[in-house]
Amino acid sequence: MDISAIATPEFESVDVDTHDGEYRNVLTERDLLQSHVEDDAKVASLTKPSRNDPAPKIDRDEDVRETARMLIEGGVKVAPVFEGDSLWGIVTADAILKAVIENLDSLRVEDIHSEDVVTVREDDGVGLVINRLREHGVSRLPVRNENGRLAGVVTTHDISDVVVRNMDTQTRGDRAGDVERVLDMPVYDVMSSLVATTTTGESVREAVRRMLADDYGGLVVTPEGDDDTVVGVVTKTDVLRALSYTEREHLDVQITNIELLEGLSRDAVRQSIEEVADKYSEMQVLHAHVRFHEHEERMRGTPLVQCQIRLRTSEGQVAGSGEGYGARNGFSIALDKLERNVLELKGITADEEYRGQLLRKLDEL
């Protein structure tokens, strides 16, 4: 299926005063939650494409799998569709998921959900939530109570909604102090206490069906029979990532914030991860996801970059993360941590196999 079957020529646009009517970029809620954005900032300052961060574009004849990959790597849920050099319309993550939903029954939530879930507490401030959302590149955070149990969920939409409502009711002179009040506001005051959950054993088709029906960007994952324990989060992005898995000769690697790959190529990233995977031949790596995040801190002009590597393997999910000045350094540190975690995973698997063999022998006595 090519994307023209599900793209739409109807979309909302914002004028950035370029006077040429040309497409510039996609504006997301995450852009609006940047810490350095002033309340009177122009849209143009948030959507300006650069040499390393080109505006995403999708050809009208592109296939669904490649389109899903481009949405993931661009960190967006909507992208423009072009017919030649002309902007024809848009394609959304929801449109893709609706088109393929009947093909998702063979997948289970445990196959694709994120296990390294980031959470906050009810009494944490909104400022901390914004930092966590930005640092980890996620759109929602489960909220735990003082006993560590699931109490709610807070999303980028919840935060942007309270910020916009606050700005609408304040005069410009009052806003400086009021921003501090909003940042100090406890999560409890902005979170949703009605949490949409799924279980590890539910089919991805059913999870997506509920996300689409109720307009949820994701679901908190809990164990079977226990709605208060958080084991992960599954989002529409996780489903798109599963859609874009390939059966190529080489390992399929997806990179989020690919524009930060200064001095590091996609092939170099893939080859390095393959070298780690090849050392442990009994563990089959099904998919790799690499995410880069740039901090404001710099050393001699080089930004501090956080790298997270997550592998979906035949033995389960395993991840490694690290920070360094520049993408190459951050990736190297994360790769080293990943290999150590792979060794630990293999050790646990070996111990479990030995324990099983021992129990079988005892049963034979």
Can you lay out the helices and strands and say which pair or pack?
Layout: H1 29-32, H2 43-47, E1 58-59, H3 64-74, E2 78-83, E3 86-92, H4 93-100, H5 109-112, E4 120-121, H6 126-136, E5 140-144, E6 150-155, H7 156-168, H8 172-184, E7 197-199, H9 204-214, E8 218-222, E9 232-235, H10 236-243, E10 253-256, H11 266-278, E11 285-299, E12 302-313, E13 316-325, H12 327-364
Parallel strand pairs: 1-2, 4-5, 7-8, 10-11
Antiparallel strand pairs: 2-3, 5-6, 8-9, 11-12, 12-13
Helix pairs in contact: 3-10, 4-10, 7-8, 11-12
Concise synopsis of the structure shown:
By secondary structure, this protein is of the alpha/beta class.
Describe what this molecule looks like in 3D.
The chain has 365 residues and is α/β, with parallel strands linked by helices. The chain is built from twelve helices and 13 strands. It has a four-stranded mixed beta sheet with strand order 10-11-12-13. Helix 11 (266-278) packs parallel to helix 12. The longest helix is centred in the C-terminal third of the chain and has 38 residues, at 327-364. The chain is globular and about 45 Å long. The relative contact order is 0.10.
Count of distinct structural domains: 3
The total count of helices amounts to 12
Largest sheet, strands/sense/barrel:
4 strands, mixed
- Kindly report the CATH topology of the largest domain: CBS-domain
Inertia-based shape: globular
SS content category? alpha/beta
Number of strand segments: 13
